[in-house]
Amino acid sequence: MRIINPATEEEIAVVAPGDVEATVALARKAFVSWRDVAPGERARLLRLFASKVEEHLDELAQLEMANAGHSEGNARWEAGNVRDLLNYYSGAPERLCGRQIPVANGWDVTFHEPLGVVGVIVPWNFPMPIAAWGFAPALAAGNTVIVKPAELTPLTALKLGEIANEVLPEGVLQILPGHGSEVGAALVKHPDVRKICFTGSVEVGKQIMAACADDLTRVTLELGGKSATILFGDADLAKAAKALPDAVFDNAGQDCCARSRLLVERRVYDEFLSLLKPHVESYECIPLISAEQRERVKSYVDNPLIQAPVKTGKGFWFPATVLAAGERDWNEEIFGPVLSVLPFDTEEEAVRLANDTEFGLSGSVWTRDVGRALRVSRAVEAGVISVNSHSSVRYWTPFGGVKQSGLGRELGPDAPLAFTETKNIFISTEE
Ligand code: NAP
Ligand code: MG
Question: Second label for 275, Cα 20 to 30 Å away, from 103, 381, 419, 425?
Fold first, then answer.
């Protein structure tokens, strides 16, 4: 597989696909000892892994900048996020306690066992953090993990795999590059893989869920989004206008939580768009991941209301763009720097329009009225909502979607439990 820098269109690496059978066999073998590593020792190894990630932070960030076109700030944050996740979940092995219920005739004990081999399938938009959302809690719970990075962006995952090899026993964390429809599909179908954590498109997510049904392989799905910002007239409009471009144009809109729909109360519609305009026109997007993705994004854009200058030359650039909502751009996930805007008149109408989508990942409410902020946050069907903010993913908080945005939750304190089976053992004490 030829790996291309999306900012220069130059080839930066060639990566050979991995061997599914050999990788799963090694993960199976490694599981037998990893599951029995004492909790304190597993914790120590995860902290050591975190410190090695910190040591390689510059290199990881540089690789992500070259492979995914990310900004330096984002790339450094992403590598730091892997370190933070490993540190956070390193506390889990020491805390995964079971329960016991007092009974007269025996010991009734319930505890959490690791599942075995876990497959983590990752998209190209945030290659490092999304891999770590899966592998950090899964390793902490005593599983061995195989990460299948996206075909376009395997380099940071491969580097993380190398770092893991220095600190963890062989086979505990492996990277399996390759095409989704071949290597990815074979991983999903492998009978020795006990859980798949998939992040990606709705279409592929549904195929994976169907494939998992064969062996009842456990599955969590983090899928697409078409999240809305609802902006009421009483909000701090200048603050919202400054914050909003990042909510949708960061990472060139290649963000499942991008607030790609904007509902503005009609009485401030014109005023808000004039406040927003300079922030959009001065926004510098990173390149899109591929020429194909740029063609897709382009196909949604006709007659923009506001647009940043178009960048020419090498690289898959597309400018920050605001559209008056049309049928297609309002309903479909574009995964590019495109914001669709629609006015509304009442709170009830705003909620109805925000919920009129098959997705339900995130959303924002901008208002100074606390009661309304809480009412609307409750009424919007989404896994995560932020008020006067577009914050979406914080590793200490559960994250995931409703409706077709996904199934299950990642992150937060309970994530390791999702990589376990609950088991009960009753021991009779009767004579
Ligand atoms: P994608 O096409 O669904 O691919 C995601 C991953 O699945 C890639 O590693 C891909 O491999 C692999 N894959 C493809 N077909 C497969 C199959 N049949 N069996 C097993 N694996 C397969 O998604 P994408 O285009 O890379 O990413 C964009 C999508 O991800 C967007 O819809 C976005 O909203 C979503 N996303 C969601 C979240 C969230 O947390 N909810 C976060 C980030 C992104 P190849 O790369 O080799 O095709
Ligand atoms: Mg794809």
Answer: 381
Q: Are the beta carbons of 321 and 304 closer than 8 angstroms?
A: yes
Set out the domains of the chain in order of their start, with CATH numbers.
Answer: 2-223+404-428 (3.40.605.10), 228-394 (3.40.309.10)
Selected catalytic residue, list 64, 197, 212, 256: 256
DSSP assignments along 201-246, one per residue: -HHHHHHHHHHHHTTT-EEEEE-----EEEE-TTS-HHHHHHHHHH
Closest CA relative to residue 230, chosen from 338, 328, 356, 333? 356
* Ligand 1 pocket, residue 6 CB under 6 Å: no
Length of the chain: 431
Residue 258 has what pLDDT?
98
CB distance 401 to ligand 1 below 6 Å: yes
Instruction: Output b/e per residue, 180-203; b: 16+ Cβ within 10 A.
Output: beebbbbbbbbeebbbbbbbbbbe
pLDDT in tens, 3-26: 999 999 999 999 999 999 999 999
- The verdict on whether 381 is a catalytic residue reads no
Model pLDDT for residues 337-372, shown as the tens digit of each residue: 999 999 999 999 999 999 999 999 999 999 999 999
Active site residue 256: yes
Which pair of tokens denotes residue 385? Answer: 């909502």
CB 241 within 8 A of CB 272: yes
Bridge-partner residues for 265, per DSSP? 344
* CB of 180 closer than 6 angstroms to any ligand 1 atom: yes
Atom of ligand 1 nearest to the CA of 221: 41
8 Å CB contact between 264 and 344: yes
What single DSSP character describes residue 415? G
User: In angstroms, what CA-CA distances link 273 with 134, 269, 310?
Assistant: 39, 6, 20
Q: Are 161 and 173 in contact (CB under 8 A)?
A: yes
DSSP string, 275-310: HHHHHHHT--PPPPS-HHHHHHHHTT-SS-SEEPPP
- φ/ψ of residue 204, rounded to 5: -70, -35
Q: Which two tokens stand for residue 288?
A: 């899109």
Q: What is the DSSP letter of 410?
A: B
Catalytic residue among 222, 265, 333, 410: 222
